[in-house]
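To: structure subgroup
Subject: Chain for Friday's discussion

All,

I'm putting the inputs and outputs inline so they're searchable in the archive.
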Amino acid sequence: MLSLTLISLAVTAGSAIASVPKPPGVVIDHSPVSSRQYIGSPSIAVLPDGEYVASHDLFGPGSTIDSTVVFASKDKGKHWQRRAELKGQWWSTLFVHHNALYLFGVTKEYGACVIRRSTDGGKTWTTSVDARSGVLHSNGMYHCAPVPVVVHNGRVWRAMEEYTGPTWGKFKAFMMSAPEQTDLLDASNWTSTNRIGPGPDWLNGTASAVLEGNAVVTPTGAITDILRVHQPDFNEYVAIMHVNSDGSEITFNPKSDFIRMPGGSKKFTIRWDAASKRYWSLVNWIPDAHQARAGRPDQVRNTLALASSGDLRSWTINSIVLYSEDVSNTGFQYVDWLFDGQDIVAAVRTAFPEADGTAAHNFHDANWLIFQRIKGFRKLKLQVAHANH
């Protein structure tokens, strides 16, 4: 086991309200536990003028499961203001393309696949009503998360899944792409691959779902879809699916394309950094001491770690960014992030105590969206990385 020095953000039983710590980082938004509306799908983008934009949706029994809220910061993440609320947008990724801001996801839980555009920094947005205005797939039920949108070889790439039901996890992975000079709101410009779901022989029958795929360019210049794998082994895995150059076909070999990656059973974002010539990710790594405290690896989200790889197949934990001893009610999860010079800037879906000491509903049902700046990330070693508080 690696030797770690970890910080604890846990609240001890019976502690005074005055001693309850604030959430780490800068608060972008807060949805009280009592509202039964939980913060999901954080995403972050940097506009051409340097403004930061962040978004999240709302889930849970108090929500309508079809709403996304957009925020902006004019001072590099120190303060945030609400900019828009969109109905009919969920599980969505923010990204900038040709000086416009886009939001790419679904209309609702297992809804149609949609994309919107804003030309004023997220204040106003197009409305997705048909195949010419952003409805890219309406003949099915779709699933995704805020994962990378990549421009490579003249095309815009984004991973997606189709939900085939009737129970959670019945997902089939595919890749979508469009020529980068075309109108991204026109469905006719998009190509989708075939769709692949788990087979009975995947990881000896233990891999029951693959989801929340990342479009990633390999060291050889190929496009892949790297997906979270739902399975019970604490030696976590991802699945690497291979996409042909025109975006029409995706393939997967279960004998060679499952790769061990720390945090692979939870949502992650992978991005390539040309300066270090490495791939980086923020993951919910599980220290050995916590494995006995949860039934499955996907239920352990109390440690947020910075990880990197030179080849997408061998991963190193570089540093611990956030940690709490509380596995049951604390989670730093579903992180979307970007490089910002020598730093990483991130939006983190966070389950953390309320100001009065009330615990989050559980590790999964987040009540905070926080902004984190990880300074000098390329130089960090395996220790606590003090984010900007």
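Points worth raising on Friday:
Residues 1-18, 384-389 have pLDDT under 50 and may be disordered.
The first strand starts at residue 26 and ends at 30.

D.
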